[in-house]
Amino acid sequence: MQLRYAFRLYPQPGQQTALAMAFGCARVVFNDVVRAREDARGAGQPFPKAAELSRKLITEAKRTAGRSWLGEVSAVVLQQSLRDAESAYRNFFASLNGTRKGPKLGPPRFKSRRDARQSIRFTANARWSITDGGRLHLPKIGAVKVKWSRALPTTPTSVTVVKDAAGRYFASFVIDTDPAADRARMPDTDRTIGIDLGLTHFAVLSDGTKIDSPRFLRRAEKKLKKAQRELSRKQKGSRNRARARLKVARAHAKVADARREFHHQLSTKLIAENQGIAVEDLSVAGLARTRLAKSVHDAGWSSFISMLEYKAQRYGRTFVKVGQFEPTSQVCSACGHRDGSKPLHVREWTCRACGTLHDRDHNAAINVKTAAGLAVSACGAPVSPGAIPARREETGSHGSPPDARAA
361 catalytic, yes or no? Predict the structure, then answer.
């Protein structure tokens, strides 16, 4: 499977200027593609093909006075930006006709220099390389210092350079991993586990283990409020406001990094210790519209479940999602009697059929495991549905962007 390994970059001032130019040129090409497509749609004409757009918006544009600066960056960066626009339109049309899963997508929008995230991508034909000194050499940018947290297992197929809202730079490498080698890294086990996610405890396992919720956002809320208050008092367009905005972004990035690190460590631990894992498929979007919205977002359940999902596939574990309408909190795990719904403040209850006293979350975790069918066969292998396709993400140095860290 393909994964991403992300590492922190530390470009010199001159390299930062070159990267800013590359980000800007890629953004201009993307916007030119969107504008050309929208003009064609408004005129009732068919959309221009990618080859035609490449010739007109890149090759010919470099010869004009208004776009001559496109020649100062790598041509691969410009071509990849054009492909990104093409991909955005394909996803939009697939979402319209219902062939793409997930929420409906809108049409591609114009990018802005004020967007929180800027990125450029270099493929193999861009002739980027990793030097003997461990630096990342990028065409027309130079050798950039990298903070390596681990060695790359194989030669990357491409690298994406990202600048986030906090002003940090990252290099995200695409790696083709060896499934056999990945599965050999994990110890053999016949254990299975059910997980009940919540707010009082982040997770309660079917074996009775309770994992406290770190509540990173709540703990940093005072500092975040102060930084945001200082930002609101700065004059728009001033340098002081730019510095205050960066301070707010860094404070939020610190919270996000800590949450992500917690998710990665816990998900890797659960994957390593269990052959089968079951979790309830929560409606996070629905819960985020309630009075518990801030706590729900602080917990980051969706991110955690996604990590469990792709790590299970990578390491040969079984991962099962139980439907959100399964009455896991209403059924007695001892006798199977359905005792009815209960308000959230009820943390313990006694079954009216068999008299068993239940911890609400522990009982739900046992029911999640039962509903998933994670029984163990005579040979010790779990009997359950197959693994679900995983998200393509992986590891990086401390402080990597949201789509690029794992354990």
Answer: yes
